[in-house]
Design goal:
135 residues; six-stranded mixed beta sheet; 2 helices; YjgF/YER057c/UK114; RidA family protein; EC 3.5.-.-
């Protein structure tokens, strides 16, 4: 059966700055668009130069879109992390580890890919997206 594709929207995560949805749900799949260290209320990029704080905020934004789509971190099968510099990996990994172990009580953590690349805004040290399977 061909299930409809629906946009996932929430004011608890930053509004998209361009032409894309915060998340898209089709059947049991929920894809969260790349989130960054943006305050959902003001649209301001926060924590310049602090990848640890940016990672925590970015993951909270990912989690907000997941909740809006009927999911949580326990439903995530993969998180993709994009960093602007390899030197930030350890600090990002520490903040990431604290967040996912706290929000995945089953202990089955999502798979992860980490890519070092350029990001759309100079203020962004990290961007994270997620793919979840929702029952």
């Amino acid at each position: 059966m061909n299930q409809p594709k629906t946009a996932v929207r929430t004011t608890e995560a930053p509004a998209p700055a361009h032409t894309f949805s915060q998340g898209v749900r089709k059947g049991p799949l929920l894809q969260v668009s790349g989130q960054g260290p943006v305050d959902p209320a003001t649209g301001e990029y926060l924590h310049p130069g602090d990848v640890r704080a940016q990672t925590s905020l970015t993951l909270r934004n990912v989690e907000a879109v997941l909740r809006a789509g009927g999911a949580g971190l326990e439903d995530v099968v993969v998180l993709r992390v994009y960093l602007t510099t390899r030197e930030d990996f350890a600090a990002m990994n520490e903040a990431y580890g604290e967040f996912v172990t706290r929000t995945c009580p089953s202990g089955v953590l999502p798979a992860r890919t980490t890519v070092v690349t350029g990001l759309p805004r100079a203020e962004m040290l990290v961007e994270i997206d997620a793919l979840a399977v929702v029952d």
